[in-house]
Each structure stands twice: as structure tokens, then as C-alpha cells.
């Protein structure tokens, strides 16, 4: 059982809970890349080992997976963009020690990670587009 | 219930400017400094080896790793001497095999990874304005494991018994190798890998929970970000290798055919497990070294780093992408081309984050007013060499080019360019930069420049021609070559260059070790840097920070001119030690708001003993001496239990501690606020990865073999598997219930649960052991992997059982109460993971054969 939080710090605590999630949140876009990568590798490996004839279907499925992954990353990136809030604040570096800076910094980092994850997913789709057989 | 109503921090936070400006009376300053000095004094005389201060352990760690590096370097020179002339007979083929195997293994396992741990243990607490790492004894235990394992593995060279199969130990060569060489490699290095994981746990918890108050994640030093990323990578990269070692050693010792194709095994599984470790490992050594550059560059440019967020992106992004590269070491193994394509694509993609951080450094240097210093010279050399290595890396990521140069000297050239540029040069830069912090003396500017130009020139003379040697067709790992091949002159150039490198290292080592007693006292912040480690005391004090500051910016020494004086006066937190304890501050993960005063452990023999006996448990099996190994393992267990019982999660004498600046903090925490809980969580993440690797093995055999499982194979008894799963799940439920009952004050019920749960655990483990008795693991890989899964689960269940009894004993003796229940929180967390392991293993052993 968790003990009750001290009453005086309730607003901080809410804020903290939200942000505790967000250290994980900057990893979500790369994790989407990882999921896409593992799915691509696993489907290709199993299909090529067990039923090479099904490869055209597998390629189609993987293209759908790419679409899904990109949609997820786009959504994460858009949320992070709003959290960064660059257009309103004009603060690019978020170098100060205020809660707001930390909040926007995590948004900025998540935007950049979403970008690199999207590039990774696109790269990972190229073999599916270009190669028509297992060999 | 006797529980106090409020166990959280009390008092004002953050401190106001007025509070910080109030001077501390002189008498109080002197008294508190004396208290701290007494609490943190390192042991004297021959007891010095029992020290656990991060400053001592980190230094020993770094010096040992550096010593192993010099030994491995000598092996490299001998290799170069043998190859200088065609048909040379300086050393025999077998010796040559031992030398190149140990050169690679030692450079990777005894130098590169431990050096990261050593430097991080040494400087991370200071970067975070802290006293020490959260688990000093764990650092000490890891260090002693490393030294014992390293001496054992390197020592095998003296007995002509060293491993000979290359640093990646491919079966079937390594599984069928005569003599103990492969076993020495497997067991000796597994032992060291465990030390690495211990260090990763320590460093992650240190970076997450031991930052100074106010140092939110957006202002922590970039080095801490890199440590977090690299710690996470170790947790996911090393366990697959440990799982691989486990299977490999079962094959070597008991003839279970995991990698033997004649009985359904597959050598490719080792290649996968090794490189799932091996490729991220390259980044595990690269990122912390480049992190040193991220500390040096702003200092020499005399401005904050450009693109802090971009560097965080590149560290985290590289951490992820580096796990999608492992098959590029296996491009010639006949995997489907489409699979190769995925890995080729990821190998190209990882260049982007890697490049971004180099551009961020370049931008910082361009935007700043650069004051060229010796550390910067080494960083500049590193960037030049690493970029060249990175470009050949881009070439090698293209599968068809890779097929042409696979296993030639082109690869040798590429990997030395990346590792010298990405690891050796930045680490030496770090040594020049941090030496004044570590030893309170300066290294010589003149000798440093000599060492740089000798090593830089020698390196390029040695390795640049190797690209050509490789393109002309010289395979790596040949002990000699015919004169007609025409590679003789290139090899001669490389050998000459190698001795120039050696000369450079000789200069460097002399500079490092020469007596510096006559040197006058150096300035406190010799590079005019902005980060907290330069608030150190000269002459040296062992307390870490005099008082733990409140931090509000990325470069506090630049931004707050009063900070150091206030730290010195003991104006900030934990400036004293009223009870003579070693203490450090635990803060929250994101915003570093103060949560707890954590008592940390002091000097002890127990970690040394525990490491010695753990060493015995790993080293005896190398010679098939299983009884002594078991005895040694039992002693190790006793030592570790004694260590935990006497010094962790003891009920404190005082509930709250006046931390300074009006803030009063609790001295005990359980669950997610406690550092111990985080350590268990992180350890179990690594453990779960190792288990997942074995399960991956099961499905790997299914895809790679048409007859897995074989049609007529006997299976595990399904009812016994089901019984085992039920009993172990019930044991988990009771453990969880015990925690809740205990917290609610129903101690009798909690104790009853802690008596029943171990019985269920023992019953479940027995049922699982019995369920596989009809299977004969030496006949085929299917029964062998079922047995391996069974052993994994049963071994973990035994650990879980000891934990349950430990908590029962704690409850009976008053160590564990409703208020002080950290142990019960920690073992419940272990049991969550164990329950998941049991369910997955039960499904694979009991259900998968019917489905596949």
C-alpha cells in the first residue's frame, strides 16, 4: 500500500505524476520504430523460412504496418510539438531551471526523437518496397 | 497503527535567495566539516582495500582497466611483429590465435566497457554535486569481480591455455575447441558481465535519483544523459550474451547440442545472441566517450553547448537504433536478402543521430571563443579519426560491398578507426581533462602534445594502409602469409606504425604515473569549466561535495558566482553528519525535488569476500570442478545475505533528519521512493531480457529447422507443468498479499503468508523439475532447450524462495515492520517478474509443442 501523500504538496504531486510519465514518453516514438523493426524482421524471417510463397502478402502487411507506425509517430510528434510550444514561447533552448522549461524541453526532445524515428521507419520500409523475393 | 502520519519532506523548498544569502557561523562551519571528514574518511593502512568510496573504487577500476589495456596492447604489438614479414615464424599459429583472441576480448571486456564504468563511478557523483554513488558496496563488489575475472582470463595466456576462437567465439570452432580456453572465456567473461550489469544499475539509479535538488532533467549535465542511455543499453545488450554463454557452457560441459547441427542445433543462434550484444556494445563504449567530449567542448568554447536537446536526441536515438544493426555482422551467413535489407537500412539510419552530435560540437566550437587546450587537441583527433571510421562504416553497411571485404583487413582498419576515434582518443582527452579533478595535480602540457602526435601519427600509419591490405585480399586472423601475395610492404608499414603508437603510450603512461609531489598547488578550476565537479576541494577531501547545492541552471559555476563559496561554507544541504553516518540525498526523478536522506554504506571486507566466493563459483567449473564451485557459490550467498541483512533497509534510529535550509527529510523509504526498489526494477529488466533471449532461441529453432520439435519427441508432462505454474503463481499472490497485510498492520497474516509461500515455491520448482524428467537433453536440441528453460525458472524460484524467507526472518526479528517494509516491496517486485517468467516458460514448455 502506498501511503497517502502529504496534503500540502498536492498540486506538485499531480504535476510530477504527469511528468514521470513523460520521461517514458520521449521513448515512445523510438519504441514505435523498434516495434516496427522487430515486426518487419520477424514476419520476413518466418515467412521466408516457412512459406516463401506468402511473401507478397507479407510485404503488403508490412506496408500497412509502416503506415500504422508512421501514423503513431506523427501523432506522438504532434503532441510533443504542442508540449514544446516553441511558437508561443520562442524559447529554443529551455536552459532554465523552472518546471515550465523542463516541460517544454521534454516536448522538444520528443519532437526530435519522433523525427528520427519516422526516418528510421521509412528506411526500414525500403527493403520491403525494393525486394520482391526472399533471396 | 504506530505509523507516523507524515513521512514526507517538511519545510520550505526551494530555498529563497534570502536563506541562501544568510552566512553560516564560523564555529558551525568548522564543526560540521569535522563531522563530515570523520564520517567519510577512507580506511587507513592495509584496510585501505576495504574502501568503498567512489573516488577510490573508481580510481582502482580505471587503473585496472588501463592495465589490462596495456597488456592487450602488448599482444597487439606481438601480433604486428609476427605479421611484419611474410612467412614469419616468431610465434606459432596457436599462440597467434591466443593473442588475437585475447587482444580483442581484453580490449572489449576488460578495457572499453569497464573504463566507462570506472570513469562514470569516478566523476558522476561530482557532476551531480553528490557525496557518492547510491550503492557504494555494489560498486566495490563489481570492481572486485572485474579484477578477479580479468586476472583469471588474462592469466590463462601464461599457461598457454588462453581461448583461441576469436573474440566472438563462433561455434562449432569454439564448442569443439580442445582444452579449457573456451570455458575460460565463457565463464570468466560472464562473471565480468555481471559486474557490468551491477555498474549499470548503480549508474542509472545514480543519475535518476541522486541529482542535487533543483537539477531537473532539462538542466542535468549531458554526461548524465549519456550515462542513462548507456546504462539502459547495457541492460538490454549484455543479457542476451549471458543467455548465450549459459547455453554455450551447457553444450561445452554437458554436451547439450544447442549449436550442434547434427542434433537439431544451430550455430547461427550464437551469432544472433552474440551480435545482439556485440553491436550495441560498440555504442556502449562509444557514447560515454563522446559524452566526455560533450563536457570538454563547452569548456574550451567557453559557452553553453549548442543544441542540448539535439544531443539528448542523438544519445537516445543512437541507443535505440543501435539495436537494429546486429545482423550487419552476419551479412554473409545466407539470411534472406530482405532481412539483410532491414539491417542495412538501420545501419545507415544510425549515422543521422551520430552525425548530429558531431555537428552540435562543431557548432559550439564555431559559436564560442575557443581556447585550445590539451583535452581539446585529443577531442579534435578523435573527431577526425572517428569520422573516417564512420565513413567506412557507411560503406560496410551496404550488403554487397560487405560481401566483398568480409573478414579482411578492411574490417580490421574500420573497427580500429571507430574504436580509436570513438573511444581511445576521447577517453584520453577525458583523462587529461579530469586528471586535475581526480588527483589534484596537472598533467604535463608538453608530454601530452608529444603523446598526442605520436599516437595520432602512429595510428594512421598503422591502420590507414590496412584498408588497402584488406582490399588486396588479406584475410584477418591469419598468422602468416606467402611472399607472393604482395602484402609484405603494407604489413611492414603497419608494424612500424604500431611501435610509434606504443611510443606515444609510453610517454602518456610516464606522464600519468610520474611522481608529481613537487608540483605546486593547482588552481581549483583549471579549465574555467561550468559544471559542478570543479567545485571540488583542494587539497582533496573524501566527502564529495562539502554541502549539496540547489541547482537552477546547466552551468552552475558560470551562472551563479556565489555557489562555490556557499557550498564551502556548508550553506546548502547535508553540510553535517550529526550521527557520524555517510549520507547522500535522494531526489525525485524528473524535477529532483528532495525526497529522502539516504544512508550509504561504508568500508567493509564483506564485498571482497563475496566477490572472491562468486569468483570461485565461476572459475571452478572451468576445470569441471563442480563440488568446489557449489561450495563457493554457497559461501558467496551467505556473504551477500550477511551484507544485505546488516547494512540495507535497517529501521533508522531517527525518523527525520534536518537537511539544512529549514528542510527536514525522512531517512527511510520503501517502494518506488527507495533507491533499492529502483535497483531491483532495473536488475530485473536485464534479467527478463536474458530470459527473453532463451525464449527467442526456442522460436529461432522453430523457424530455422523444419523438424522442431521433432515429430516423435517426448514432451514435458503437461499436468506437472500446470501444477508448477499454479503453485508458483499462488506463491506470487501470497507474497503480494503479505506486503499488503504487513502494511495494514496485520502482521500475523503476513507472516503466515510468508511461511506458506516458500512451501509453494519449493513445490512448484519440484513439479517443474519432475515434469521434464522423460526428456534427454543430450539427444536433441528440443529437450535441451526445454531443460534450459526449466533450469532458468527453477534457479529463479530458488532465489525467490530465499527472498521470502529473508522477509519472514526480517518480520520475526523486527527488521521489517509495517512502517519499514522496503525489503518486502523489493521482493514483491522480483516476484512480479518471476511470475511473468513462470507464465511464459509454462506456455513454452507446456503449450507450444501442441501449437507448433
Automatic annotation (TrEMBL), chain A:
This protein's UniProt keywords: Membrane, Transmembrane, Transmembrane helix
Name of this chain's protein: Uncharacterized protein
Superkingdom of the source species: Bacteria
Keyword hit for Transmembrane helix: yes
Residues that span the membrane, as ranges: 33-53, 60-78, 105-131
Automatic annotation (TrEMBL), chain B:
GO CC terms: plasma membrane
Protein name, UniProt field: cytochrome-c oxidase
Family: Belongs to the heme-copper respiratory oxidase family.
PROSITE patterns, per the entry: COX1 (PS50855), COX1_CUB (PS00077)
Location (main, coarse): membrane
Enzyme Commission code(s) on record: 7.1.1.9
Biological or metabolic pathway of the protein: Energy metabolism; oxidative phosphorylation
Transmembrane domains' residue ranges: 57-79, 99-128, 140-164, 184-208, 220-242, 282-301, 308-328, 340-365, 377-403, 415-435, 447-468, 488-513, 602-620, 626-645, 675-700, 720-738, 750-772, 784-808, 829-851
Domain Cytochrome oxidase subunit I profile per the UniProt entry, residue ranges: 34-559
GO MF annotations, alphabetized: cytochrome-c oxidase activity; heme binding; metal ion binding
InterPro entries: Cyt_c_oxase-like_su1_dom, Cyt_c_oxase-like_su1_sf, Cyt_C_Oxase_1, Cyt_c_Oxase_su1_BS, Cyt_c_oxidase_su1_bac, Cyt_c_oxidase_su3-like_sf, Cyt_c_oxidase_su3_a-hlx
Entry-linked PANTHER family: CYTOCHROME BO(3) UBIQUINOL OXIDASE SUBUNIT 1 (PTHR10422:SF35), CYTOCHROME C OXIDASE SUBUNIT 1 (PTHR10422)
One Pfam assignment: COX1
Annotated catalysed reactions: 4 Fe(II)-[cytochrome c] + O2 + 8 H(+)(in) = 4 Fe(III)-[cytochrome c] + 2 H2O + 4 H(+)(out)
Membrane-related topology note: Multi-pass membrane protein
Keyword Hydrolase listed: no
Gene name of this polypeptide: ctaD
Amino acid at each position: 500500500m502506498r501511503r497517502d501523500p502529504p496534503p500540502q504538496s498536492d498540486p506538485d504531486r499531480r504535476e510530477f505524476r504527469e511528468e514521470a510519465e513523460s520521461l517514458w514518453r520521449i521513448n515512445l516514438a523510438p519504441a514505435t520504430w523498434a516495434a516496427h523493426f522487430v515486426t518487419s524482421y520477424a514476419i520476413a524471417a518466418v515467412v521466408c523460412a516457412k512459406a516463401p510463397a506468402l511473401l507478397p502478402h507479407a510485404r503488403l502487411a508490412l506496408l500497412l504496418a509502416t503506415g500504422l507506425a508512421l501514423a503513431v509517430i506523427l501523432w506522438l510528434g504532434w503532441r510533443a510539438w504542442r508540449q514544446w510550444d516553441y511558437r508561443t514561447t520562442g524559447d529554443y533552448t529551455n536552459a532554465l531551471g523552472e518546471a515550465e522549461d523542463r516541460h517544454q524541453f521534454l516536448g522538444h526532445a520528443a519532437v526530435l526523437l519522433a523525427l528520427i524515428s519516422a526516418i528510421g521507419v521509412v528506411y526500414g520500409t525500403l527493403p520491403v518496397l525494393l525486394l520482391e523475393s526472399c533471396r | 497503527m504506530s505509523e507516523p502520519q507524515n513521512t514526507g519532506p517538511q519545510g520550505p523548498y526551494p530555498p529563497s535567495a534570502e536563506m541562501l544569502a544568510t552566512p553560516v557561523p564560523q564555529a558551525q562551519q568548522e564543526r560540521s566539516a569535522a563531522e563530515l571528514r570523520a564520517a567519510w574518511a577512507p580506511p587507513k593502512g592495509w584496510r585501505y582495500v576495504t574502501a568503498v568510496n567512489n573516488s577510490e573504487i573508481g580510481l582502482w577500476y580505471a587503473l585496472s582497466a588501463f592495465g589490462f589495456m596495456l597488456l592487450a596492447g602488448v599482444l597487439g604489438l606481438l601480433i604486428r611483429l609476427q605479421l611484419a614479414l611474410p612467412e614469419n615464424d616468431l610465434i606459432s599459429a596457436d599462440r597467434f590465435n591466443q593473442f588475437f583472441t585475447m587482444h580483442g576480448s581484453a580490449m572489449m571486456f576488460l578495457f572499453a566497457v569497464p573504463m566507462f564504468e570506472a570513469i562514470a563511478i569516478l566523476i558522476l557523483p561530482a557532476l551531480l554535486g553528490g557525496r557518492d554513488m547510491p550503492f557504494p558496496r555494489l560498486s566495490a563488489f563489481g570492481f572486485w569481480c572485474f579484477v578477479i575475472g580479468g586476472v583469471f582470463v588474462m592469466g590463462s595466456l601464461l599457461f598457454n591455455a588462453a581461448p583461441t576462437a576469436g573474440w566472438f567465439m563462433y561455434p562449432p570452432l569454439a564448442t569443439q575447441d580442445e582444452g579449457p580456453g573456451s570455458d575460460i572465456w565463457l565463464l570468466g567473461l560472464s562473471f565480468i558481465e555481471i559486474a557490468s550489469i551491477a555498474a549499470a544499475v548503480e549508474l542509472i539509479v545514480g543519475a535518476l535519483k541522486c541529482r542535487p535538488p533543483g537539477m531537473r532533467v532539462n538542466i542535468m549535465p549531458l554526461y548524465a544523459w549519456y550515462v542513462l542511455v548507456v546504462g539502459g543499453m547495457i541492460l538490454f545488450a549484455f543479457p542476451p550474451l549471458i543467455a548465450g554463454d549459459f547455453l554455450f557452457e551447457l553444450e561445452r560441459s554437458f554436451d547439450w547440442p544447442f549449436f550442434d547441427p547434427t542434433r537439431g542445433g544451430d550455430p547461427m543462434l550464437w551469432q544472433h545472441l552474440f551480435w545482439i550484444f556485440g553491436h550495441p556494445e560498440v555504442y556502449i563504449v562509444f557514447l560515454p566517450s563522446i559524452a566526455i567530449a560533450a563536457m570538454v567542448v563547452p569548456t574550451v568554447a567557453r559557452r553553453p553547448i549548442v543544441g542540448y536537446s539535439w544531443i539528448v536526441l542523438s544519445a537516445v536515438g543512437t541507443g535505440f537504433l543501435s539495436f537494429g544493426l546486429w545482423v550487419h555482422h552476419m551479412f554473409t551467413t545466407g539470411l534472406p536478402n530482405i532481412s539483410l535489407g532491414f539491417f542495412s537500412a538501420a545501419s545507415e539510419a544510425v549515422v543521422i543521430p551520430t552525425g548530429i552530435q558531431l555537428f552540435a560540437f562543431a557548432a559550439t566550437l564555431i559559436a564560442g571563443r575557443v581556447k585550445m587546450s590539451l583535452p581539446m587537441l585529443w577531442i579534435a583527433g578523435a573527431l577526425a579519426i572517428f569520422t573516417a571510421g564512420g565513413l567506412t562504416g557507411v560503406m560496410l553497411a551496404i550488403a554487397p560491398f560487405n560481401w566483398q571485404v568480409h573478414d579482411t583487413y578492411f574490417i580490421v582498419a574500420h573497427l580500429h578507426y571507430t574504436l580509436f576515434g570513438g573511444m581511445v582518443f576521447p577517453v584520453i582527452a577525458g583523462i587529461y581533462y579530469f586528471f586535475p579533478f581526480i588527483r589534484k595535480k596537472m598533467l604535463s602540457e608538453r608530454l601530452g602534445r608529444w603523446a598526442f602526435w605520436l599516437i595520432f601519427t602512429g595510428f594512421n600509419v598503422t591502420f590507414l594502409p590496412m584498408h588497402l591490405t584488406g582490399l588486396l585480399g588479406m584475410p584477418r586472423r591469419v598468422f602468416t602469409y606467402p611472399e607472393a601475395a604482395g602484402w609484405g610492404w603494407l604489413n611492414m608499414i603497419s608494424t612500424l606504425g604500431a611501435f610509434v603508437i606504443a611510443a606515444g603510450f609510453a610517454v602518456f603512461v610516464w606522464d600519468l604515473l610520474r611522481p608529481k609531489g613537487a608540483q605546486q598547488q593547482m588552481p581549483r578550476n583549471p579549465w574555467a569549466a561550468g559544471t559542478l565537479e570543479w567545485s571540488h576541494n583542494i587539497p582533496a577531501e573524501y566527502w564529495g561535495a562539502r554541502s549539496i547545492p540547489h541547482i537552477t541552471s546547466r552551468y552552475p559555476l558560470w551562472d551563479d558566482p556565489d555557489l562555490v563559496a556557499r557550498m564551502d561554507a556548508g550553506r546548502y544541504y547535508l553540510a553535517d553528519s550529526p550521527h557520524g553516518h555517510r549520507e547522500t540525498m535522494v531526489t525525485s526523478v524528473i524535477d529532483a525535488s528532495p525526497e529522502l536522506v539516504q544512508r550509504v554504506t561504508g568500508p567493509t571486507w564483506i564485498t571482497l569476500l563475496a566477490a572472491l566466493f562468486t569468483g570461485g563459483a565461476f572459475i571452478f567449473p572451468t576445470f569441471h570442478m563442480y563440488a568446489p564451485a557449489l561450495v563457493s557459490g554457497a559461501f558467496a550467498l551467505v556473504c551477500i545475505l550477511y551484507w544485505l541483512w546488516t547494512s540495507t533497509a535497517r529501521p533508522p534510529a531517527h525518523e527525520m533528519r534536518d537537511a539544512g535550509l529549514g528542510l527536514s527529510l525522512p531517512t527511510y523509504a520503501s517502494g518506488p521512493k527507495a533507491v533499492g526498489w529502483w535497483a531491483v526494477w532495473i536488475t530485473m529488466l536485464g534479467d527478463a531480457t536474458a530470459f527473453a533471449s532463451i525464449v527467442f532461441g526456442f522460436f529461432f529453432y522453430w523457424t530455422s529447422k523444419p523438424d522442431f520439435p521433432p515429430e516423435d519427441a517426448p514432451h514435458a508432462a503437461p499436468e506437472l507443468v500446470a501444477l508448477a505454474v499454479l503453485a508458483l503463481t499462488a506463491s506470487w499472490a501470497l507474497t503480494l498479499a503479505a506486503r499488503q497485510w504487513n502494511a495494514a498492520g496485520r502482521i500475523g497474516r503476513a507472516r503466515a503468508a510468508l511461511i506458506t509461500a516458500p512451501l509453494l515455491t519449493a513445490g512448484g520448482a519440484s513439479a517443474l523439475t519432475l515434469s521434464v524428467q522423460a526428456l534427454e537433453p543430450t539427444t536433441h536440441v528440443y529437450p535441451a532447450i526445454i531443460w534450459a528453460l526449466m533450469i532458468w525458472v527453477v534457479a529463479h524460484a530458488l532465489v525467490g524462495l530465499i527472498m521470502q524467507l529473508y522477509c519472514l526472518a526480517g518480520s520475526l526479528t523486527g527488521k521489517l515492520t509495517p512502517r519499514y517494509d522496503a525489503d518486502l516491496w523489493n521482493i514483491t517486485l522480483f516476484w512480479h517478474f518471476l511470475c511473468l517468467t513462470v507464465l511464459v516458460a509454462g506456455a513454452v514448455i507446456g503449450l507450444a509443442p501442441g501449437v507448433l
